Amino acid sequence: MEKSMYQHILLATELNNTKSHIENKVKELQQLTKAKLSVIHVIEPIPEVYYGGIYGVVPNLDATDSVSTLRILEERAKEQLKPLAKSLGIKEQSLHIPIGRISEEILAFAESKKVDLIITGSHGVHGLQLLLGSTANAILHGAKCDVLAVRCRE
């Protein structure tokens, strides 16, 4: 049996309305290559401080609040991603929801899991980010594998 062009595809997704357009392309590419498919959605951590105008820096009064808030966000993301997993025909174990800086988490996952194609949406609209957007741009320039930036339809 001939080895496929891609062995492990990673869909880096946001939880927004444009994901069905990207999802369709991912399905087609996965069916074509028969590659393993993983999905990642990164939750950015909540800042430890609040910059409040005339109030200056206001520290997070209770660190347990931010931890519980992150857990709530993680559970909500998991619930939002379950239908995507079903639609893509993958198990929930293939859904990954790390907490951290988006591009760093995606790149670290891709490298550690030997991903050879990252698929992400692209919807930047300003200056140098006109074609990609900041996250897609960071992934493109930092990845050690191929990157497919799917233009999101407005």
UniProtKB/TrEMBL annotation:
Gene3D superfamilies attached to this UniProt entry: HUPs (3.40.50.620)
Cellular component terms (Gene Ontology): cytoplasm
Keywords: Cytoplasm
Main location: cytoplasm
Subcellular location(s) of the protein: Cytoplasm
Keyword Cytoplasm: yes
Domain UspA: 5-151
Pfam families to which the protein is assigned, alphabetical: Usp
InterPro entries, per database record: Rossmann-like_a/b/a_fold, Universal_stress_UspA, UspA
Assembly and oligomerization: Homodimer.
Similarity section: Belongs to the universal stress protein A family.
Database matches in PANTHER family: STRESS RESPONSE PROTEIN NHAX (PTHR46268), UNIVERSAL STRESS PROTEIN A-RELATED (PTHR46268:SF23)
Protein name from the UniProt record: Universal stress protein
